[in-house]
């Protein structure tokens, strides 16, 4: 009779595996769990990475306005630190806001027009009249000088002690005459010295340039600000002097201003080379006022580029080995002449200074 199967003879199961209630082995469950964990880990990491990207984008979005605000705040602060007269569109609120057209016609408007630019500040020297007055005072002094010499000669013949003793100078009839004569000479000398000083001061003023004198005459011919008989004052060009000191590049400044005036883009030119007050001075389209400081900076840039070009251009040519010696000598001669010419025309250098700069 067969033996009953013992409990130890239950179906063989691997010692490393344990059968669960649902018939699955623990290894399968662990593998599935690990796969689930990996999937969840990837999902979590993807969500976390997406979340971090969103946070970064949000933080960048939130930072952008702050950066812009900081820049705006910095620019406004920096703009507040800039002196008002440095700003291109600044107009002094305390200045006289009247334009040229607001002045009454005649001498008031003409005086305002002459005052709007230093190039228009000129006047007649009246050299002929000054010389006439000076010659007349000189003749008066000559007559008094002759009288005093005759008086001294008479005193010498009569052995008058007034020549050697000042206390005896004004005594007697002859003494009164001598005293009165000396007083007249003193008064005439004072008048003569005054006219001599005035002639010297007027003669030391620089002659008005042809360009500035022509500008004034053109304004008078076009607008007729004064009566015809008053305009005759301006008909003697050789007698006009400038009231503003001419600096070293004044002639070159005028040349640059003339070139800027001929350019077709008037508004652009005035924006860069005229300040806001000058643009508001007049509504006349033919009146061009330039800021001297801006013109001076522009000319300095031109002079710097010109000087560098005249000095380096011959060096570049001389370093070319294929050129002959004759060509190199001609290049040196030409650029030396151009350098001396530019130095003479663009500055008020004296002959000795031009010679020294060329030799160097």
Give structural notes.
Keywords: Membrane, Transmembrane, Transmembrane helix. This is DUF6594 domain-containing protein. The protein has about 350 residues and is mainly α. Among the domains are: about 50-80; about 125-205; about 250-360, no CATH class. It has helices at about 25-80, 105-115, 125-155, 170-205, 210-225, 230, 250-260, 265-275, 275-280, 290-320, 325-345, 350-360, and strands spanning about 120-125, 240. The chain has a two-stranded antiparallel ribbon. The longest helix is centred in the N-terminal third of the chain and has 56 residues, at about 25-80.
Brief account:
The chain has twelve helices and two strands; from the N terminus they run H-H-E-H-H-H-H-E-H-H-H-H-H-H.
């Amino acid at each position: 009779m067969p033996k009953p199967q013992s409990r130890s003879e239950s179906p063989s199961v691997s010692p490393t595996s344990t059968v669960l209630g649902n018939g699955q082995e623990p290894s399968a469950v662990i593998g599935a769990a690990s796969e689930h964990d990996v999937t969840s880990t990837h999902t979590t990491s993807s969500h976390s990475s997406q979340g971090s990207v969103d946070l970064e984008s949000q933080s960048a979005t939130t930072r952008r306005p702050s950066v812009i605000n900081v820049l705006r705040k910095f620019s406004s602060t920096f703009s507040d630190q800039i002196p008002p007269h440095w700003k291109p569109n600044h107009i002094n609120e305390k200045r006289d806001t009247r334009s040229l057209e607001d002045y009454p016609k005649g001498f008031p408007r003409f005086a305002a027009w002459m005052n709007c630019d230093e190039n228009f500040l000129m006047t007649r020297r009246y050299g002929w009249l000054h010389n006439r007055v000076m010659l007349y005072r000189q003749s008066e002094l000559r007559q008094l000088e002759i009288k005093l010499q005759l008086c001294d000669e008479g005193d010498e013949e009569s052995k008058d002690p007034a020549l050697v003793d000042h206390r005896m100078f004004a005594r007697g009839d002859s003494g009164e005459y001598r005293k009165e004569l000396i007083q007249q000479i003193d008064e005439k000398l004072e008048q003569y010295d005054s006219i001599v000083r005035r002639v010297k001061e007027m003669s030391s003023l620089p002659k008005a340039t042809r360009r500035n004198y022509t500008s004034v005459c053109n304004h008078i011919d076009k607008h007729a600000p004064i009566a015809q008989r008053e305009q005759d004052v301006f008909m003697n060009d050789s007698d006009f002097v400038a009231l503003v000191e001419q600096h070293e590049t004044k002639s070159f400044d005028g040349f640059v201003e003339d070139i800027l005036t001929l350019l077709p883009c008037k508004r652009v030119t005035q924006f860069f080379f005229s300040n806001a007050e000058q643009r508001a001075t007049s509504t006349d389209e033919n009146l061009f006022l330039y800021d001297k400081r801006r013109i001076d900076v522009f000319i300095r840039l031109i002079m710097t580029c010109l000087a560098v070009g005249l000095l380096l251009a011959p060096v570049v040519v001389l370093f070319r080995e294929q050129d002959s010696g004759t060509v190199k000598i001609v290049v040196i001669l030409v650029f030396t002449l151009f350098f001396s010419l530019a130095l003479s025309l663009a500055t008020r250098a004296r002959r000795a200074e031009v010679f020294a700069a060329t030799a160097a």
